[in-house]
Amino acid sequence: MSTQVPETQETEESEAETETESVPVAQQRRQQRKADRRERVEERERERTEEEAASDENRYHLKVFRYDPEVEGKQEPRFDEFHVPYHKGMTVLDALMYARDHFDSSLTFRHSCRQAICGSDAMFVNGRQRLCCKTQLSDLEEPVRVEPLPHQEVVKDLVVDMEHFYDQMEAVEPFFQTNDLPDGELDEQRQTRENREKVKMSTRCIWCGACMSSCNIAAGDNEYLGPAAINKAYRFAMDEREGSDMKEHRLRILEQEHGVWRCQTQFSCTEVCPKDIPLTAHIQELKREAVKNNLKFW
Amino acid sequence: MSQSYNRGLVEDFGRWREFSAGMWAWIFHKFTGWVLVGYLFTHIAVLSTALTTPQAYTDTIQMLEMQPIVRILEVGLLAVAVFHILNGLRLLLVDLGVGLEAQDKSFYASLVLTGAIVVASIPTFVAGAF
Question: Mind listing the domains of chain A with CATH numbers?
Answer without folding.
Answer: 56-159 (3.10.20.30), 162-181+190-295 (1.10.1060.10)
